[in-house]
Amino acid sequence: LPPFADLPVTGIILFESLIEFLSHLRMSSAEIRHTRQDCFSRCYDLAEVNLGSGLTWLDEGVFWESESLKSIVIPDCVTEIYDNCFYYSGLEEITIPASVTNIGVQAFEGCDNLEYIHLPDSVEIIRAEAFMDCVSLQEFDYPMNWTEATSDWTTYDLFRGCESLTEIVVPEGIEDVPRGAFAGGDCIERV
Predict the structure, then answer these.
(1) How far apart are CA 137 and CA 124, in angstroms?
(2) Nearest to 38 by CA among 77, 66, 4
(3) Are 139 and 167 spatial neighbours (Cβ–Cβ below 8 Å)?
(4) Model confidence at 13, in pLDDT bands (50, 70, 90)?
(5) Which of 72, 78, 91, 82 is nearest to 26 (CA)?
(6) Average pLDDT over residues 69-76
(7) Is 18 helix (H, G, I), strand (E, B) or coil?
(8) Is the pTM of this model over 0.85?
(9) What is the pLDDT of residues 163-182, one digit of tens each?
(10) CA-CA distance, 84 to 151, in Å (whole number)?
């Protein structure tokens, strides 16, 4: 690997030609508030990520197709995970903090190895196709404050292709399930 492959990111701009060599990412600066769209997309060797404590949101496609990325802990100050953020990445596990309120369109689509996702009760909005084609997803924690399943298209398809997800437990006290919440979840046998 080139000598810059494991440098901490503290506000420098990494050129696309250098990104392909990135295998570890450490955002050590609390000054970094957000990531740019697609900034680490297609970093096929990116296996380890330590996000900075000042990060407030993850932009669209940040870890798009980062196939070696297996796990990530999102800082407590992040409020939104934007569209396609982890689209077809290698995620096996993820920790989402209670500060997150919004999960974007196709945010986790195609994460074939993701077996379990715990969404904190703070999540209010889950957008279309958020977990589509997560073929290994077996458990989904239904957030208590989930009030909206939005769609920019004519279909919601949040769980389409989630072959291993056969049951979703809706917590006691939930009176309204968002319209389209389980649309496309053909394998779900019991709610």
Answers:
(1) 21
(2) 66
(3) no
(4) very low
(5) 72
(6) 86
(7) helix
(8) no
(9) 888 877 777 777 777 666 66
(10) 14
